[in-house]
Design goal:
Chain A is mainly alpha-helical and about 210 residues long. Helices cover about 55% and strands about 10% of the residues of chain A. In chain A, helix 2 packs antiparallel against helix 3. Chain B is globular. The two termini of chain B are about 35 Å apart. The chains are: A mainly alpha (about 210), B mainly alpha (about 260).
Chain lengths: ~210, ~260
């Protein structure tokens, strides 16, 4: 997440909505332009706006040493900041279907060694993600301690790393806003399709960063 | 109900029978007999509280209850298109899944309220389906065409005494609905002495809290509003409070709870 330069110079954190690396319609026919526009310019933007507002309230409460207030702000902060973190990873992890390239190099080797094939990995992530109850996310993550890929799911906007310790590599948003206008109630079709727009270069970069961290 | 209704559903639950053409006198007699049977059966199904709806298809355990109004009756606030998915797919799946899970168990003939209470904290999967079966049926009745606005009578009195005023209740209910961080529900319930607003996540509902009786609910899962107002949950909440809330339903639930 990027911190606004002007705000940073005042000594205050201010988060900004990251631009997409592609047009809203670029992921069609896998994810519609209508969904991408709403998802990015409304949902993600709202998380960023709320996160900034909460940061101000948190800083104020912290300056006063108001523990009770800080605690009361935590659920909203986890929700909105988690939403910002998750969506930043999500949008960066997608690419137009015409630019799709399967995993290569170290990432491919790791996938092969652990799952046998890319398809097997995708099937496992799909199988874990589809049954998420209500709103949540499916994740391919990296277990630094074990040096292995891992599959996990989180509820609502709970962020993967803070919740499980796994470093997020690729996320699948299964909040209904991520697919409903196009796929309606048929979540499995959306999750199976999203692999066609998976940006494995981004995944590889995240894995690289996780290993050297 | 058509003359053949009870015969076919009670016996075989297959598709409609081939039409026959008995003499007029026989038709009249049969209609009279079936009408009498219909009345007798309807009387046999008692209401045991806000959650219990009379069964119309005896062979189903948890019933896929029809909407209490035409599917376009709540337009422009909730569209027929939304209901085709919300009622016809989401709600139906919860009901079908619940019935499949209880088949062959001691809960086979139980309604969704009894099931959800029995498995709460024990079987998350069955709880989700049974509770969502209840929640959705309760939600359909929580709305009506020409609803919304301020309640009257005893319910209005209790809203004033519990929240200070209708406006304060409205603010609290809207806040609960707008800040359910994920898929969830907003509820107005009776706690034995006053009214309370709560929000729940997922399939959770007030029935699992000792002493709480739900009066009215608003579904804020995204599928409840996304096709109609997209990300604008606040609009969905305002539509419910201003144009749809079925205060008659809430009032009768309150009356039953206070009886």
């Amino acid at each position: 997440p990027r911190v606004g330069a002007a705000a940073a110079s005042r000594g205050m954190a201010s988060f900004t909505l990251p631009d997409l690396a592609y047009d809203y319609g670029a992921l069609e026919p896998i994810i519609s332009a209508e969904i991408m526009e709403l998802h990015h310019s409304k949902h993600h933007r709202t998380y960023v706006t709320n996160m900034n507002s909460l940061h101000e309230q948190i800083e104020e409460a912290a300056a006063k040493g108001d523990a009770s207030k800080l605690i009361s702000l935590q659920p909203a902060y986890k929700f909105n900041a988690g939403g910002h973190l998750n969506h930043s990873i999500f949008f960066g992890g997608l690419c137009p279907p015409s630019e799709y390239e399967p995993p290569s190099g170290e990432l491919a080797a790791l996938i092969e060694a652990q799952f046998g094939s890319l398809e097997a990995l995708q099937d496992k992530v799909t199988a874990a993600t589809v049954p998420v109850q209500g709103s949540g996310w499916g994740w391919l993550g990296y277990d630094k301690a074990a040096g292995k890929l891992a599959i996990a799911t989180c509820a609502n906007q709970d962020p993967l790393e803070a919740t499980t310790g796994l470093v997020p590599l690729f996320g699948i948003d299964v909040w209904e806003h991520a697919y409903y206008l196009q796929y309606k109630n048929v979540r499995p079709d959306y999750v199976k399709a999203i692999w066609q727009v998976a940006n494995w270069k981004d995944v590889a970069a995240r894995l690289e960063a996780a290993k050297s961290a | 109900l058509p003359p053949d209704h009870f015969k076919s559903t009670a016996a075989t639950c297959h598709g409609p029978r081939a039409p026959r053409a008995p003499p007029a006198a026989m038709i009249a007699l049969r209609t009279l007999l079936v009408a009498s049977l219909g009345v007798a059966v309807a009387l046999a199904f008692r209401f045991t509280g806000p959650a219990r709806h009379a069964r119309t298809t005896p062979s189903m355990k948890v019933d896929h209850a029809p909407l209490p109004y035409a599917d376009d009756a709540l337009e422009p606030y909730v569209s027929a298109n939304t209901f085709s998915y919300h009622h016809g797919k989401h709600y139906k799946k919860y009901v079908v899944t619940t019935n499949a899970a209880i088949e062959g168990t001691e809960m086979e003939d139980w309604d969704e309220v009894a099931i959800l209470k029995a498995v709460y904290g024990k079987d998350q999967g069955l709880f989700n389906n049974a509770a969502q079966s209840f929640n959705h049926k309760f939600f359909w009745s929580s709305m009506k065409p020409g609803g919304g606005g301020k309640p009257t009578g005893k319910l209005a009195e209790m809203i004033d005494s519990s929240f200070g005023s209708y406006d304060e209740f409205r603010k609290e209910f809207a806040t609960a609905a707008n800040t359910a961080f994920g898929s969830g529900w907003a509820w107005l319930s009776y706690d034995g002495s006053k009214l309370v607003v709560t929000k729940t996540i997922g399939a959770d509902c007030p029935l699992t809290t000792e002493g709480l009786t739900p009066l009215i609910t608003l579904d804020v899962w995204e599928h409840a509003y996304y096709l109609d107002v997209q990300n604008m949950r606040a609009t969905h909440v305002d539509n419910f409070l201003d144009h749809l809330a079925n205060w008659d339903f809430a009032a009768s639930n309150l009356e039953a709870a206070m009886a």
